[in-house]
Amino acid sequence: MADFPHLSRRGFLNRSAAVGGLLVVPGLLTACSKTDAGSATGEGALDKLRKQGFVRVAYANEAPYGYMEGKELKGEAPTLHREIFQALGVKELKPTLSEWDGLIPGLQAGKYDVVSAGMAITPERCGNAIFSEPEFISPTALMVRKGNPKKVTDLASAKEAGITIGVMSGAVEGSYAKGAGIPEGKIKTLQKPQDGADAVKGGRVDAFLLTGISLRWLAKTNPDTEVTEAFVPQIDGNAQFSPGGAVFRKGNEDLRDSFNRELKKIVSDRSRYVQLLKEYGFGESEIPPADLKTADLCKG
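== Ectoine/hydroxyectoine ABC transporter substrate-binding protein EhuB ==
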């Protein structure tokens, strides 16, 4: 079995908010789990969703993972989850906007059935909710000025070139850069994605380190930049895949298992996966390896 580390893919989120999303709200898990599992009525969660004709999903309005465009819910997670739930006989996604730090507490409180926000699978989050199998991985990339003047392709080449790297405050990418041997004096902390793009364009950093998915999306509105091919960083010899998935309330294991069966059909069909998600910058490099399992990721 492969040894996969358990780091969040979220390089561009407010980290205090992400931590807040891991907190258990007292009593909510106990209050929700019995009803969700259908033990009181004998009716399972999927049966309920089929009967009502929709599934309530939460999103954090973060492109390209889950966001509203006009009146349409778009992004990697809603697109993939819509396909899966339609295959399960549930026709519609009914969206609820949430702040990032409210996603898991809102799920625990029964405000929605699934988090469709591209949430990373971490041991802490696994303690408060249940995840699908990975629906994507997040290889890392570098945003550089157009033409890539320093000719960097990954962190090893960045170290060799002696360049300054920009990373998000509190993000895992900072640990990737340090793990690659880049001196702390060559690592500049930034607050949000656009700050990173602006720093690259202004020459304050030579490259901005983030997930390839996020950087490709960011490059659409920053034409003076380009993004390197995605790569998988290593820390102590371990590949940093940063996988994400759908999130369900504890007690809804049957619903999660039904979801996983349909998800497997998609991720095992590379052309179908890419066709569904290429609009959002997801390609073959984001397809999870077959031996990357949520159970292992949750162990820590």
